[in-house]
Amino acid sequence: MKYTDLGLVNTQQMFKNAIDGNYAIPAFNIYNMETLLAVLDAARIAHSPVILAVSESALKYMGPDMLIGMIRGANIQPHEQIALHLDHGGSIDACKHAIELGFSSVMIDASKMSFDENIKTSKSVAKIAHDHNVSVEAELGTLGGIEDENTFGTIGYTNPTDVETFVAQTNIDSLAIAIGTSHGAYKRKNTNEELRFDILAQIATNLPEFPLVLHGASNIPQKLIHTINEFGGKISGALGIDEIQLRRATKMNICKINVDSDLRLAFTAGVRKSLSAHPDNFNPREYLSDARTTITQTCLDTIRHIMGSENKVN
Ligand code: G3H
Ligand code: 13P
Ligand code: ZN
Q1: Is the CB of 176 under 6 A from ligand 2?
Q2: CATH number of the domain that 109 lies in?
Q3: 140 Cα: distance to centroid of ligand 3 (angstroms)
Q4: What is the pLDDT of residues 199-217, one digit of tens each?
């Protein structure tokens, strides 16, 4: 399947626009019909370019045919600037498979390999992807959090002196960097913790105009945590990256920001609140619709208050 037959675009032009305009494109993780439609609703309401991110485990959960069938059913048009992106592709084969399915962008995550092996692997994927006009993201440095299977894990900050060689030798289109973010909902112990803007500034200097990517960048809205806990949940100590720091990063060549945990929280908050408000309801279509609305609102807040990508669809 060619991604253009699904109305999708690759990320090249959207990143160029984002770098020029000092904003970021949101990459929202999806894993079922509700998350897909909720994210597309937000993109369409806000006229924002959006990247639909699908992890390997989410792809397995939905099944490739179901995902592509849903994308087709969503009737996406090229002018909407929607990309379908493989998040954290763990192997060359995983990236190849995604390209064959109709993804318009892939991430090869070889960040746990040695520098040389990371270059070799990322370069192979870039070659294959570019033959299909598909965009490629690779990662240098490692994030903390669930990527290391614990919370508050050790972060292997990206070394700014490595980035030029890495990009030149791999021919990738965007680079995910580690400057203090981490995956999951437990990113930091207090709100004073700063991302390493000094490292980001050096990377941006060494790679002028080059698209950089921030993973593990959920804001973890405390109002969602409160809603979850008010209606029977029990989540404590969850803290994300504050809006001010994320907005600052968008002005320093971070042109893609990955958000998964916030949408998981929104989904859960929406379901819990709906079921609590209507304890006699046992129609999933009703509480899933409420969840979908909560996810869309969370995406809209992110687009408007963090990414700055509203009305950037031209
Ligand atoms: O960065 C990882 C994403 O949050 C995807 O997580 O593999 O559980 O879908 P997942
Ligand atoms: P969060 O866990 O902060 O949402 O990060 C998501 C992510 O990086 C997906 O690749
Ligand atoms: Zn990630």
Answers
A1: no
A2: 3.20.20.70
A3: 12
A4: 999 999 999 999 999 999 9
